[in-house]
Amino acid sequence: MDLSILQILMADTDGRPSIPLGLLFRYGAEQPNGIVRFIPADAYIRDAQRPVLSLLYTGDTDEETRRLLSDFLTRDFNGMRADSGKPGPNGLHPLLLPAWFQNLLPEGSFREHIARIRGCDVTNHFELLAACGTDLPGAVYALPYDNATPALMQTLVTNNQDALEMSVVEIPLVEGISLSGVQPKLGVNRDSAGRYVARTKLSEVSHIIAKLPVVDYPRMPEVEHLSMELARMAGVDACETHLVPLEKLSADHVYDLGSPDERTTLFLAVPRYDRDSPTRVHAEDMAQVLGFLPHEKYTTAVSYSLLMQVFMGYPSLGEPAVLELLRRLAVNELLGNADCHLKNIGVYYPDGVEPRLPPAYDIVAHHVFNGAQGHALYILPEGIQKNLEARQLQELERRHLAEHGEPMTPAQRAVASKLQLLRPSTLKALAEALRLPYKLLQTTVDKVVTDAANTWPAAIAASEITPAQKTRMTAFLERHPAVQAVRRRQRSRLGPT
Predict the structure, then answer these.
(1) Looking at residue 433, what is its pLDDT?
(2) Helix, strand, or coil here: 142?
(3) DSSP secondary structure, 148-211, as one string
(4) Which residues does residue 37 pair with via DSSP β-bridges, in sequence order?
(5) Nearest 5°: phi and psi at 141?
(6) If we measure between CA atoms, which residue out of 347, 203, 374 comes closest to residue 285?
(7) 263 CB contacts (<8 Å, ≥6 apart)?
(8) Interatomic CA distance for residues 102 and 293, integer angstroms
(9) Measuring CA to CA, which residue among 274, 214, 210, 280 is closest to residue 242?
(10) How many CA atoms lie within 13 A of 278 on its CB side?
(11) Half-sphere exposure of 493 (CA within 13 A, CB side)
């Protein structure tokens, strides 16, 4: 059976792959007992000053971290067979990478693009990682390992019990850039003429994500640009974005961008926070931190309160990161962004060791396209959230009856029962779970709502989204109970007219 090996390295302060972290190998991919495993390097395990690969592999003490890194037979270091989808010609489902590495792979149509160039199946995850090995998220590299001796090969897989055949892993692709998310996008750089171009050699990295127009989603780049601007107006630390004429994009792609309308077609340029020329800044998303596979990014096993509790466990994150995430959740409610899942929240390591909350990314007012509302994850643990929502629904029904003299219709009740919001009762339960003052959380949310109510309508009206989208976005904002409370206070201060 064949053995393929990639060396996993971390970038140094010059951005070069010079810090060995360990070996990721695949053995017997076409056999029922196939293995994909990451084995940390001994030197990395022993180094008390090691850069952090993931919080998943980091303990409270150096001794505990060494123990975690040494136990490579655990689930966190091993891949498994996919449990769904179409099996291959051999009747086997594809081998997944260990969860942390699976989350490094490109997603959606971009994965298909890379697979087509590489000449491999889209389910060949090891080969896809190898293809993108020089331009992965964060500061890691995955490079072909060419120092495998027979002794090493047998030690890795069989504990010296079997002879192995080494497979050659091809060098990474120049086009091999890993970008998450299903929206059409490219990794590019801006040249001296102001054009946005793909990298031309393996030593380069992409510093900008180009998010392209999407057929059937009118002005998606403009909607996301506006959403990010609105988030900043409401106090969120969000990535900068720029709308750029599509004619300035000089990079081949395979996406169907539809027919341009009468106006200039634009794409969205987003500078990457994990690229700080000439080096890289290591980063990971919360799916990696918690050991979930990419398709589990909406898992009901994780709530935003759990993520906040993780933040509270690190002094470099702590209360400021909790409040920042809370601001982002409040903005998502007001925009109709119900896609803040585990891969759209992460941490990064400016100093290589201490995790910090990076600027927000992928904030999009999906409501204007599909009527989305609420949140991607539970705010509180599932059981607590459902009990709280049942009590909130009873209160909403009582208020509706008092205000309208008739009970809610089945349709109104169905909508109300599914819409979890940052209501006072939710914030009180959240404050109790985090052992933070309720007043602190409520004040944080109130400021977001007040800033949005005061500044968003004019910004939406002046934006480049369609008139119908402006109407829909503004109406959604004004329907939010917290915004309606702001409007009532504003009318009260004005007095009778």
Answers:
(1) 95
(2) strand
(3) --HHHHHHHHTSSSS--EEPPPPPPPTT-----SSS-EEEEEE-TTS-EE---STT----EEEE
(4) 25, 78
(5) -120, 150
(6) 347
(7) none
(8) 7
(9) 210
(10) 7
(11) 5
| List of residues 6+ apart from 219 with CB closer than 8 A | 213, 266, 464, 465, 466, 469
Residue the block writes with tokens 């091993």:
78
Distance from chain centroid for Cα 445: 23
Got the DSSP string for 116-132?
Answer: HHHTS-TT-HHHHHHHT
Convert the pLDDT of each residue in 449-467 to its tens digit: 999 999 999 999 999 999 9
Q: Indicate the domain borders of the chain.
A: 2-166
Per-residue pLDDT reduced to its tens digit, 164-199: 455 656 666 666 677 777 678 888 999 989 999 988
Identify whether the C-beta of residue 304 lies closer than 8 Å to the C-beta of residue 211: no
The span from the CA of 96 to the CA of 123, in Å, is 8
Both tokens assigned to 294 = 């990419």
Joined together, the tokens standing for residue 456 give 């968003």
What pTM was estimated for this model as a whole?
A: 0.89
Phi/psi region, residue 104 (left: phi>0; alpha: psi -120 to 50; beta: rest), is: alpha
